[in-house]
Structure formats: structure tokens, C-alpha cells
Amino acid sequence: MSRTGKRGNRILGALFAAAFVITCVGTWIFSGKRAEGSWQDSSYWSEAEAPVIYMETESGGHYDCLTGFKDAASAEAAADRNLVALPSSLAQKMVIETYGSSVDGIRYELRRAEGQLLETGDITDPESSGTQLSFTVQFRDLMSTSEDSLLTLYLTLADGSEYEYVTRIIPAPGADIDAKLAYFHDFFNAVYDKSRSAEAAAQLYVVSGKDNSSFGNATINTSAELLTWGTLQTVPMREIVPSLRSVTDDECEFYARYPVLVTDSSGVSQTIMTEETTTIGLDKSGNCQVDNYQRTAGEVFSGSNAFNDARTLNLGIQGGGEEDMAVSASGTDYWFFNAGNLWRYASGEDKLIRVFSYESSDSDGVREDNEDYIGRILRCDDDGDCWFALMGYVSRGRHEGQTGLSVWHYSASDDATEEMLFFPMSGTAETIAQQTGTLMSVGGDGVFYLSYGGQLLTVGTPGNEVSRETVDFSAESFAASSDQTQIAYCVGTGEWKTLRVVNLTDATAQEITAPDGDCIRPLGYIGHDLVYGLAHSEDINEAEGSFPMYRIGIVNDAGEQEADYQPDGSYILQVQLDAARVLMSLGVKQENESFLETGSDQLISRSQSAAEIQTTTVTSDEWKKETAIYLPKAAASSSGSPEVEIVWNITENTGDLALISADE
Length: 664
Fold this sequence. Notes:
Layout: E1 15-17, E2 22-24, E3 52-56, E4 62-67, H1 72-77, E5 83-86, E6 91-97, E7 103-112, E8 117-123, E9 127-129, E10 132-138, E11 149-157, E12 162-171, H2 177-191, H3 197-201, E13 217-219, H4 224-227, E14 233-236, E15 243-247, E16 252-263, E17 269-282, E18 288-299, E19 307-309, E20 312-316, E21 325-327, E22 333-338, E23 341-346, E24 351-356, E25 373-380, E26 386-393, E27 403-411, E28 416-424, H5 429-435, E29 440-442, E30 448-452, E31 455-460, E32 465-470, E33 478-480, E34 486-490, E35 498-503, E36 508-513, E37 518-526, E38 529-536, E39 551-555, E40 561-565, E41 571-577, E42 581-589, E43 595-604, E44 614-620, E45 624-630, E46 643-646, E47 649-651
Parallel strand pairs: 5-12, 24-46, 28-47
Antiparallel strand pairs: 1-2, 3-4, 3-6, 6-10, 7-8, 7-11, 9-10, 11-12, 13-18, 14-16, 15-16, 16-17, 17-18, 19-20, 20-45, 21-22, 22-23, 23-24, 25-26, 26-27, 27-28, 29-30, 30-31, 31-32, 33-34, 34-35, 35-36, 37-38, 38-39, 39-40, 41-42, 42-43, 44-45
């Protein structure tokens, strides 16, 4: 299917030159009316204030864009993304792009990875040029080691705020970072210059049988067409300043993340956010070559003419990991994160609404495009309201430079997005998601539920009162429905005597207690139906993970017993749940106390699973394979262009909450 006439143009602002970084200002142009306000509306985000820091090679090349943090632990967690390769002189030039912020103080510390301070100093006379400051640090002989150390730069701004920038640093006099960085840029330019496509393709090691059906993923083993974007015209939208991820005398691995404006033969343009890792090594003659290459690309959804037909909403090229999606219970409101932005398609109104974004109208995007945050949709209602969470780095607003977990609420009736809670947390987005991933839910009354540090946290509104209960969140003692509106857990750590079943939508709870001498466990949910099992204590073998059950029960979300299964003379040895059934393997107890499998059985649940978004693919000759959302209940737009709206009224929370883990 061709995009011609189906997809709208996204027009972005012109490129302009800065002293050493070429940037691109992105201006969104949508069909349909905008919500009240403008990019300068005070109710929208304040502009980012934190500067960024680049490393400069001896020949003037730039690499390692360092982002500022207000939390030292989070800054150190992000240090693995950058590596400074010191030349033999041990002198390193650094450039601060201030973006107009006034820097009152610059200090650095060099430490061993285990914390030992090697040296420290203040930068008192940086050179100034426009919005940039530059200075050189001459490191001492203490750096003469092959081990990574940590370099921390502290910038104090005129308003008293301080940001930390942390990177790994290592002496690498034989790496010839200048030559490898120059070769990285030369290969990059060849990929995006149609007249040099053959040069770029010459670096490939094409392997037959590789999937070349999507521009979303390209590697050193895929086709030349995939590497150089086929017949699509491509323009990188800012100068590329890669991060150095690893270095030896023979190889340097560079990482880059950048937007590309992609235009097809009919003039349809889309912005593609691209991430690539390129390893530059040496051939047998000592000349630079590409040793490895991997690129993922994902379209930045704009909402303009997004329908391919009556039932699909095209998200375009999507080669990275899947972002969160959800659909309301009636299947009429579709929600999805794309490139860090949260979108809603209201099929009844035939309207696309961008509910949340860190994007800025008058910035090069280097700070706002920070990839280290994850969005998760917690709850979406049929009235258009939605609760969602953001985990990771905050690049704008009151919490700029912090990492943490924030919970937001979008009100359809008010056309407004409000931050309800902010929990400062250290670490990367991935580590925060892991720490809080077992349960994160919003109840029908707006109460927020979270698993953290072995505790079940309940945050009520108004007043954000926090209550805590110690809970064993292991798979043997805890279960949650797929939409996380129903939970069940064993009361007491290491005890399987009482099962508490909670309906988070109305905050009702009941307890199921095992008979004396027996144990009870949650086995999982089918839709909103809880499946639990009962076993005799003497039959359980914890060391082997054996929990042979004599009975299985099913309880619905109203607390009513839907099924009670007890096989005559047999035990239930294993249980597997699918969309509507409990599949069981049955067995008997032998004289040596072991269990022998003898057959199988199943139970049917009447519960319906929560509505889920379905995705499909569309293909065309120029754009290849793209991802689309299937809209089974959505009406066709008469023009193919639903109204597009941006929510401008975004309010940040003024009071932060501290998470307290069980061992604190």
C-alpha cells in the first residue's frame, strides 16, 4: 500500500549553524485545530536549563554528550554510556554548551571506580564563545593505569542549582581516537549521501537469509538497500556527536541517537528517531574499517493523515522495542506511547490528542530527546481519562535533572494533564522499571498502588497519605491480573496460610484461609478471575519447588466462588493458565512419597480478558514494512485525517514523596 495521499507531511524548521554543533529546530504542523495556547504558554513546560558537556579530541572532533543530573547515584548509573579516551598527553579539552544558562562554577573530581579520590580541581578561567565555554584539564600521572576511573564534573548555575556529569575515563594513547572518530563520520555521511551509497555498502558483510523487510533494523549483515534507505531521501537533522562506549588500540565502539527527516518520491516526509552502534577497527594494513554496525529506527508519530484505511492507524517504521499501548474497556479509546510521547485516539470524536511530551519548540532536542525514560499506561477509562507513569530521567520542568517515578492523570473533560505524584529514585529507567515492575496500578478512586522494596505501597488522595504493608512478591505468593486491577497475595512472609484478594477498582478485599495443616497459593488470573490452589503441608517440597494440590478454586472480582475442583484420589501437579482455561496435569502419590503423573484435566473460566490493542503491519515498495494499530471498533474518517490536538495545560506536582524500602 502506497503512502501517497494517505500520510501527511511533517514539516520541520530549517537547519541553522552554531559554533560547532549544527542543530535543527523542530516545528510541528498539524491538520485540524490546536488546543488553546502556544509554545510560549506558561502552563506548558518551562524550557530545559541544564547545559551539556562534550569532549573534544586533539584535532577538534567532538564526542560524548554528557547530560546533567541532580542525583549523584543516577549520574554514576548513567556513566556506562560514555567513555573518555585520554591521549598520551593526558590533557582533555571539554566544551560546555550552556544554551544561555549562566555557569557560576565548574569543578571536577577524578576517582577510582571503588571511590578513591585521585585528584580534584576548580576551573576558574574557561574560554567563552557565544553560548559555549571551553577548558582543558591536565590530568596527572595518577591516571597512568589501564583501569576505568570516573570523572565527575560539577556545574553550578547562577540560580544556585548544581548538576553533576559523570563519565568513565581511561588513558588510551594507542587508540588513535581522532582517526577512528573521523572514519565514523565519513561512514555516517556515506550512508546518508546517495552519491556515496556504494562506499557505504562496501563496508557490509551481507549474509543471505537475513530479514530485509523493514528499515526499522539494519546491521552489517543486511542489504545495501536497507543500510542506505533505498529510494527514500534522508537528511540527518542535527550534527552527530557520538558517545564512545568502548575502546582498545584496535577498535572503538561509538553510539549515536539522532532524528532523520525521511522523504519519499511523492514528497511525503516523516521524522525517524534513529539509534546506531558502530564499531570502527583496523584492517590488516592498519587502515580504519567498519567492524560492526547495528541501527534501529522508529518513526516519531505526528498524527497527520495517519489512517491507511478504515481500521488501521499507521505508526510507521518501528524497529526498536515495543512501547506501551492500551485500549479502554469498550474498545473506543486507543492509547499508545511513541518516541516518549503519549497519544490518544478517541474514535467516537475521530480525534488524535497528544497528551504528554517533553518535546520543545525552540531547542535542538539534544536534552529533550534523552532516551532514558520509560512510559507505562496504568489505566484508561471509557470517558477518555487516563493515568500513566514515567520512569527515568526528567529533561524539563521542576524535576529537570532528577530521576524517578512520576504518576500523571489526563482529564478529557478539562483537556489537561497533571502530575499526581513524584518519587525521586536513583538509577536508570531500566533499573527503576525493574524495582517497581511487579505492581503499578491506579484504583477506581484514584489511589495509587506500587510494589517497591518488598512493600506494597498505597498512596491515597487527597493528601497523598502513604501506607505500607510487607508483601512477598515472589511468583509463589503474589499474582495480579494482566490489567493490574486485581491482586492476590499471601499474608505474612514465607507463610501460605491466608490469601488476601483485593479488587483495586473499588478497594474491596476478602481473605481465603487454608484449613489447618494446609497451605494456599495464588496460581494466577484468567481475566479478572483468580485461580488459587490448596495443598497439604506434608506434601510440599520447597527444595524441589513441588506444590502438589488437592484442590483448585476460582474466585471472580466480586469475591464469588466460580469453581471448586477437587479430583477424586488424585493430585494436581502442574497448572497452566491460558485466555479462558486452567490446564492441569494430574498424578498420584506413591509409597515413596513421590508423585507420578497419570493424566490431565481442565477448567473453563467465564471471565473475559481485558481489552488489548492489536497491532498489524502494512507494506509498501518505498517504506517497506511498517507497524499499525488495528482499530476494530473505530469508524472510518471521511477525510482520512482525524482532528489533531495537543494538550498544553500540563501541571507539575509540587510535593515529592520518598520511597522507603523494607530494609531502610
